[in-house]
Design a protein that fits this description.
- There is one protein chain.
- It contains eleven helices and twelve strands.
- It has helices at residues 13-28, 43-51, 60-64, 80-88, 99-113, 127-134, 147-153, 171-184, 196-211, 224-236, 270-283; strands spanning 2-5, 33-36, 54-57, 70-73, 92-95, 117-121, 141-144, 160-165, 187-190, 214-218, 240-243, 259-264.
- Strands 1-12-10-11 form a four-stranded parallel beta sheet, with helices on both faces.
- The longest helix has 16 residues, at 13-28.
- It is flat.
C-alpha cells in the first residue's frame, strides 16, 4: 500500500499568519481576548483556543457589547461596519485578515465607487463573501456560485461590470463563469482573486485523486475550501472520504486499493494530518 500526502495540505499562509497573531496575544496574556467568528473553520482548533481563554463573538449585537480587551479579525475579513463598532467602543483591534482578501476589499471598494455593478463568485453565506459585500458600499452587487446563476442575474449588457471571486473558489467553476461573463457584458472587468495557494492546492488534489484508488480529504465541516477539495477529488476518484479528525475515520481496507492519497484544507493543523497519515500507514 502506497500513501501519498499532498505537499500543499494544511495551513496556508493566511491561516498560519492569523494563528501566529492570535497566539502572540495569548502568550502576552492580553485578555479578555476575542475573535469575531471562529479564527478558522476548524472545530478542534477553536475548542483548544477556548480552553486557552479565547472567546468567539458570533454576532454584531454581541460585538457591540464588547467595551474592553482585544478583538482579532479573522482571515476571512469583515466589512467596514465591524471596524467602526470596535473603534467607537475603544476596543483594541488585531487585524488578521488575509492579505489576499484585503486586496479584494480594495478592488471592490474602488470599482464600486466608480459605478461598477459588482459580481462576486462565491458562497453568499460565507463570512469572506459577507465581508467583501460590505466594501461594495451602495453598488449593485450579485453573488453567484456558478455560470447558471450568472445567467439569471445578468442585466444591462452596456453597464460597467466587475467580476471578482472568493479566494478559495473552485478554479474550474470560475473559468466557466468568466467565459459567460465576458461574452455577455460589453464593459466587463475580470479580476481573478483566487489566491495562488488555492490554485496549487486544488490542482495538486485533482492530480493526486486522478492517480489514487482512494482519497482522504481532511478538514473542518464548515470549511469552504475543504468542501471544494472534496468535490474536486470526488470527480476524479469515487472512493473519496471527508474526515475532520481521526475519530471520523471510517475507511476500511480493500485489496483493490494500492494507492491512497491524502490532502487537507487550509485550516487543518499538521498534527491532525499526521495522525490520519500514521493511522493509514499502520492499518493498511
Amino acid at each position: 500500500m502506497e500513501v501519498i500526502v499532498a505537499k500543499s495540505a494544511g495551513f496556508c499562509f493566511g491561516v498560519q499568519r492569523a494563528m501566529d497573531m492570535l497566539m502572540d496575544e495569548v502568550d502576552k496574556g492580553n485578555f479578555p481576548l476575542y475573535t469575531y467568528g471562529p479564527i478558522i473553520h476548524n472545530e478542534t482548533v477553536v475548542e483548544d483556543l477556548n480552553r486557552k481563554g479565547v472567546r468567539v463573538i458570533d454576532s454584531l449585537d454581541d460585538l457591540r457589547k464588547i467595551t474592553e480587551g482585544t478583538v482579532v479579525i479573522r482571515t476571512h475579513g469583515v466589512g467596514p461596519e465591524v471596524y467602526k463598532i470596535l473603534e467607537d467602543n475603544g476596543v483594541n483591534i488585531i487585524d488578521a485578515t488575509c492579505p489576499f482578501v484585503k486586496k479584494i476589499h480594495e478592488t471592490v471598494r474602488k470599482k464600486a465607487s466608480e459605478g461598477y455593478h459588482m459580481y462576486i463568485a462565491g458562497d453568499a453565506s460565507h463570512p469572506e463573501i459577507q465581508g467583501i459585500m460590505g466594501w461594495c458600499e451602495d453598488a449593485k452587487t450579485d453573488v453567484i456560485s456558478d455560470a447558471n446563476e450568472l445567467y439569471e442575474v445578468l442585466s444591462d449588457k452596456d453597464e460597467l461590470s466587475c467580476l471578482v471571486a472568493q479566494t478559495t473558489f473552485n478554479t474550474k467553476k470560475f473559468k466557466d463563469i468568466v467565459e459567460v461573463f465576458e461574452k455577455s457584458m460589453y464593459n466587463s472587468n475580470v479580476v481573478n482573486t483566487i489566491c495562488n495557494a488555492t490554485n496549487e492546492r486544488q490542482d495538486e488534489a485533482r492530480q493526486l485523486a486522478s492517480r489514487a484508488d482512494a482519497m482522504i480529504v481532511i478538514g473542518g465541516r464548515n470549511s469552504s475550501n475543504t468542501r471544494k477539495l472534496y468535490e474536486i477529488c470526488k470527480e476524479q476518484c469515487e472512493r473519496t472520504y471527508f474526515v475532520q479528525t481521526l475519530e471520523d475515520f471510517a475507511f476500511r481496507r480493500d485489496d483493490d486499493i494500492k494507492l491512497i492519497g491524502i490532502t487537507a484544507g487550509a485550516s487543518t493543523p499538521k498534527n491532525i494530518i499526521k495522525e490520519v497519515q500514521n493511522h493509514v500507514r499502520r492499518e493498511f
